[in-house]
Design a protein that fits this description.
- This protein has about 250 residues and is of the alpha/beta class.
- The protein contains nine helices and seven strands.
- It has a seven-stranded parallel sheet with strand order 3-2-1-4-5-6-7, sandwiched between helices.
- The radius of gyration is 17 Å and the shape is globular.
- Bound molecules: NADP nicotinamide-adenine-dinucleotide phosphate.
- NADP nicotinamide-adenine-dinucleotide phosphate (NAP) binds near residues 42, 63, 188 and 194.
Amino acid sequence: MSVIDGKVALVTGAGRGVGRATALELARAGARVALLARSLGELEESYESLRACGGAAFVVQADLGDLDGIPEIARRVNSALGSVDILINNAATTEPVGASVSLDPPAWAAALRINVVAAATLAFSLLPAMLERQWGRVVNVSSGIVEAPGMMIRANAYLTSKAALEAHTLNLAAELADSPVTVNVFRPGSVDTAMFDFLCDSPAMVGSPELREWALRARAEGELTTPDEAARSLLAHLRTDASGQIWDVSDVL
Ligand SMILES: NC(=O)c1ccc[n+]([C@@H]2O[C@H](COP(=O)([O-])OP(=O)(O)OC[C@H]3O[C@@H](n4cnc5c(N)ncnc54)[C@H](OP(=O)(O)O)[C@@H]3O)[C@@H](O)[C@H]2O)c1
């Protein structure tokens, strides 16, 4: 039996893309899954897919930019499915994109609030119960672009947020090294999703012509990772007891 069987998972950004595929994979492995995003229609489609494969699911429509709402998210999931064992912080925004000097500073800060602060706040609110129950998994979905911070010019908020998310993750893992809770980063590769489509034509790619050329060619030639492939890789890692690692979709387990 899988370690995931019977566990309760919360997946943010579960309305489409990597988040939806990960939620489905968790349900197939026997988890009860809370699906969080803002778009109710997309969440309902994810919910129907999970139900169709026999999974138990619960929809939480919420904006992670509203940090004050996070305790309520934890309370609602807890009363619908039980205490969260697995937190997948997958939701992210790539906006704002554009020349940094012309960005609206509050919009830049809002991206960090969604991509970093909300992920950390969710973990902080769910960790006490994981520690008490002697089992837990936190996975923060990042990006390989952290290795090349000079690329994706004009996506400064996104780059900054992913680098900060990885630092937060590895530091928290070190703090919890003697505990039964594991904390890891997952980099899904270049995935065929709405986010990838958005970035292809955004100023972030236009400002990085070589990266844009590569992205358009990879998409046209079908070389992108699929959301299902990313989800299967994440789940393979999740079944291990590893902590404090940066998992990549290209890892072979
Ligand atoms: N696609 C790639 O090539 C790629 C590469 C590297 C890393 N990643 C990472 O992989 C993860 C998933 O990306 P994806 O490509 O699957 O993106 P996506 O298709 O754009 O999906 C993003 C999900 O996050 C949700 N979300 C965004 N802002 C939110 C907010 N404020 N509150 C709650 N939910 C919010 C979206 O739903 P709503 O808009 O309805 O809220 C959606 O369900 C992200 O962390 C991304 O940075 C992706």
